[in-house]
Amino acid sequence: MKLPAPRDWLPSSRTLAVVPPFLWLALFLLVPFLLVLKISFAELQFGIPPYTALAEFKDEAIQFSLHLRGYILLFTDSLYLATYLNSLKMAAVTTVWCALIGYPIAYYIARSSPSIRNVLLLAVILPFWTSLLLRVYAWVGILRNDGLLNKLLMGLGIISSPLEIYRTDLAVYIGLVYAYLPFFILPLYANLVKMDLRLLEAAYDLGARPWQAFWRITVPLSRPGVIAGAMLVFIPTVGEYVIPEMLGGADTLMMGRVMWNEFFNNADWPMASAVTCVMVLLLLVPLALFQYNQVRQQEAMQRGQA
Amino acid sequence: MKGPNKTARGLALGLGYFFLYAPIASLMVFSFNDSPLVTSWSGFSLRWYGSLFNDDALLRAAWLSFKIAALTATAAVIIGTWAGYVLVRMGRFRGFTLYVGMLSAPLVIPEVVLGISLLLMFVELRGTLGWPAENGTFTIWVGHVTLCMAFVAVVIQARIRDLDRSLEEAALDLGATPLTVFFRITLPLIAPALVSAWLLAFTLSLDDVVLASFLSGPGSTTLPMEVFSRVRLGLKPEVNALATLFILAVGLCVILANRLQLRKEPESR
Amino acid sequence: MSDSRYAAQHSADPHEFVRVSDLVKIYGDVVAVRSVNLAVKRNEIFALLGSSGCGKSTLLRMLAGFEEATSGQIMLDGEDITAVPPYRRPVNMMFQSYALFPHMTVEANVAFGLKQEGVDRAEIHDRVFEALNLVQMAGYSRRKPHQLSGGQQQRVALARSLVKRPKLLLLDEPMSALDKQIRQKTQIELVKILEQVGVTCMLVTHDQEEAMTMAHRLAVMTEGQIVQCGTPQDVYAFPNSRFVAGFIGSTNLLTGTIVVDEPDHVAIECAELTRPLYVSHGVSEPLGMEVHVSIRPERLVVSRSQPQGDYNWAHGMVSHMAWMGSYALYQVRLDSGKVVEASVPSLLLAQIDAPGIDEEIFVSWDADSATVLAS
């Protein structure tokens, strides 16, 4: 008589398959964040670690102390609010410029013949893979008062004294757009290249002029690509540190710099933690939107395939 | 059907690519500049390449960065592929939403936040367990893997979704256990995606300044950290030389990878 | 069942090899498979016929093990396999897309299943080539799937699913990927191979010609349920419902009331016909009941002259005629306004003085040509 075979899909083997990557994330993402949360409620003190403990056993009682200095400062000192809003503003402006410059490039690459398309795409991918740090460094050399741009303009006689771009917001904008342009072009290209050109043919057949066809057909169809590209630019830009640090002035307020400074320059860990916590919470909204968009795109694709 | 306007196309592409490449070109050109004032041309010279190869600090940092990048990429591909596969193929299990959220977090959260949290955790661990004794290669590696696995997961998920499910089902039908199916069917079929994911993770790790700055310790300065600290003090011609070599290397790899992909195209799928 | 000539559908057959009992599959709100009962005999080729969305593919996937049944039981050769995972079932499937592993050669593809069983190298080699010879693909063993044509891929897929000598072979729309031209030839070839190997087989298709050509028995499925089960001849000649009558082949449907009800014959008054219908067998419906009747187009005889007798003929005008090569399809508008179709073999056309369009015509049929439908 045959004994029933043990099932491979027992809960334990399935759990075994699902859990390990989860463990890494829990250990190195969730736990650290919970720790930051705890430290944000601590107070600065000398010693190691440079912050007070959350709970203390004193006089036969466990005393919890939640210090709210950090949070109070965050919400009363207008610097932090201004920094957050400025980060959002700079990210938004960067996204718009990436879209304005990136859309035509993505469009014309998508509409080129396959062989040329390959070369053009390669030419966009190359900067993407090249170190961001080095490419931003290049702009330092261009935008400085004694940099290449000023030398060129003065040499041509267009201006008589150097333009002060380096260490201003404008330099940061240039750096951000430059760095994130490929991030906008690539997903948009992926969307445009899949567009059915026969739709345009049908439009021309019905009497539409090229410009009309572009606005009424191509642009609406490219919306998912534009949104994907925009998110890929906007979200990382909000928290950028390197580019504002290298190209921006002392008054270029961005969240990344503020958090870095609190931590390294002021060594105020509780403060830095509080800023971090608020930052994360404020980002949870875009994160949720991002995920929602992802899931919707995934489902739309699956429905399209079915 | 007529294509888009030739002049508009030429103008857009021309300006666009000029914008993308002018800075890169300027970097490379001035790496051959004899003058230490980077932007004032005084003659052709290879001296900065020479001093680059004598620069011990930079070379040590470069070696460390490559090591960490390779270790990161390998670990990130393993963990990221695992996570991505689970999300696509294991259906909706308990905690699915939390899983997805945690996997997307590194993509959305600024690196500074990730750096601060991990550093604080390592400090706390050091306080209670005495380990890790000091920050260095290991801690940087942990931070990089956490960041890169999210990117790997995105790439791999997309590739697995495109995979014809009936291939895996056919393997099951023929008697292969789910584990065998993963290693014998799924992995070989997504191999090119695994390679690009590895390269992506490698590049991200190699280029990272923020996480490395938070998580490094004495004696573990990475290349980007070294470069960053130097350029904060002004323009440095050795950095131009480094940049040129880097760009050439990357360019070569990208072109090679492209050639390989084009040759394999008719066979795949 | 209204037709007393037709024997009971479900017999406790000792040769039952596969038995599906009250199988149900529910996805959220949708009931894909509603309490299906099936029995397949050993070495039989059984077809599940239905249009897309009827649940036949879901049923097949449950038999393969890719979908878990919500409730019900599947027995194979006396063993309950309902909860057995697909890689443990002695069942193999040939996929609609063939699902050949693109990164393996033809030989490796066919050998894959045997490798999982732990069969030794020498035996694998022998069995693989035995299977490839069966489908005449032995010369292609080193090729990769993308280097083969559609028909060749199908043969390799068949070899791969037969090499493990499964107790049950499942075919998912086997001909759907092939051109219409070679379909018929391939159907016959496939049946020959299956009969040669002697494997019990269930195939799923939406093409009724395919089901009729290939299967020993078939079941018609709609909305998750089996509506009729039997040999192709029986289902074609004695459909049990309007749905089945219209689904398999084409038919003329008439509605009428029973006016004479005897054990061995029945007469039906039809508004659509001027003469009553005479059916030479008894029915289970009582006198006075409204019934539906199906008469196949090939059973209608056309002529210019009025047929003899008081029953089973009608008068009308030819509204359309289509020449199909081996037969002609007549569309006749009867006096009552009802339009019927009659198919006349070309051979016969030449002998009778065939009426043309807008000409008068009589259609008639035998007493055993009409089938009274149960629903």
The sequence of SSEs of chain B as H and E is HHHHHHHHHHHH
Give the integer mean of the pLDDT values of chain B.
89
Percentage of residues assigned to helices of chain B:
over 70%
Shape descriptor of chain B reads globular
Gyration radius of chain B, in Å: 23 Å
Indicate the multimeric state: heterotrimer
Summed up, the helix count of chain B is: 12
What percentage of residues of chain A falls in helices of 4 or more residues?
over 70%
Looking at this protein, list some descriptive labels.
heterotrimer; A: 306 residues; mainly alpha; two-stranded antiparallel ribbon; 2 strands; 73% helix; 3% strand; disordered N terminus; B: 269 residues; 12 helices; globular
Write a short abstract of this structure.
The complex is a heterotrimer of chains A (306), B (269) and C (375). Helix content of chain A is 73%, strand content 3%.
Strands, helices and their partners?
The complex is a heterotrimer of chains A (306), B (269) and C (375).
Chain A: H1 11-40, E1 55-58, E2 61-64, H2 69-76, H3 78-110, H4 114-129, H5 132-143, H6 148-155, H7 169-193, H8 198-205, H9 210-221, H10 223-238, H11 242-247, H12 255-265, H13 269-305
Antiparallel strand pairs in A: 1-2
Chain B: H1 6-29, H2 47-54, H3 56-89, H4 96-108, H5 111-129, H6 137-162, H7 165-173, H8 178-189, H9 191-207, H10 210-215, H11 223-231, H12 237-264
Helix pairs in contact in B: 2-12, 3-6, 3-9, 3-11, 4-6, 6-9, 7-8
Chain C: E1 16-27, E2 30-41, E3 45-49, H1 56-64, E4 71-76, E5 79-80, E6 91-94, H2 106-117, H3 121-134, H4 150-162, E7 168-172, H5 180-197, E8 200-205, H6 208-214, E9 217-222, E10 225-230, H7 232-237, H8 242-247, E11 252-261, E12 266-270, E13 277-279, E14 290-295, E15 301-303, E16 313-323, E17 327-334, E18 339-345, H9 346-351, E19 360-364, E20 370-373
Parallel strand pairs in C: 3-8, 3-9, 6-7, 7-8
Antiparallel strand pairs in C: 1-2, 1-4, 4-5, 9-10, 11-12, 11-14, 12-13, 14-20, 15-19, 16-17, 16-19, 17-18
Helix pairs in contact in C: 2-3, 2-4, 3-4
Provide a descriptive summary of the structure in words.
The complex is a heterotrimer of chains A (306), B (269) and C (375). With 306 residues, chain A is mostly helical. Chain A has helices at residues 11-40, 69-76, 78-110, 114-129, 132-143, 148-155, 169-193, 198-205, 210-221, 223-238, 242-247, 255-265, 269-305, and strands at residues 55-58, 61-64. Helices cover 73% and strands 3% of the residues of chain A. Chain A has a two-stranded antiparallel sheet with strand order 1-2. In chain A, β1 (55-58) and β2 form a beta hairpin. In chain A, α3 (78-110) runs antiparallel to α10 (223-238), α4 (114-129) packs antiparallel against α7 (169-193) and α12 packs antiparallel against α13. Chain A is globular and about 85 Å long. Chain A starts with 10 loop residues before the first helix and ends with a helix. Chain B is mainly α. The longest helix of chain B has 34 residues, at 56-89. The radius of gyration of chain B is 23 Å and the shape is globular. Chain C has 375 residues and is an alpha+beta fold. Chain C is built from 9 helices and 20 strands. In chain C, β9 (217-222) and β10 form a beta hairpin. Chains in contact: A-B, A-C, B-C. At the B-C interface, α7 and α8 of B face β6 and α2 of C.
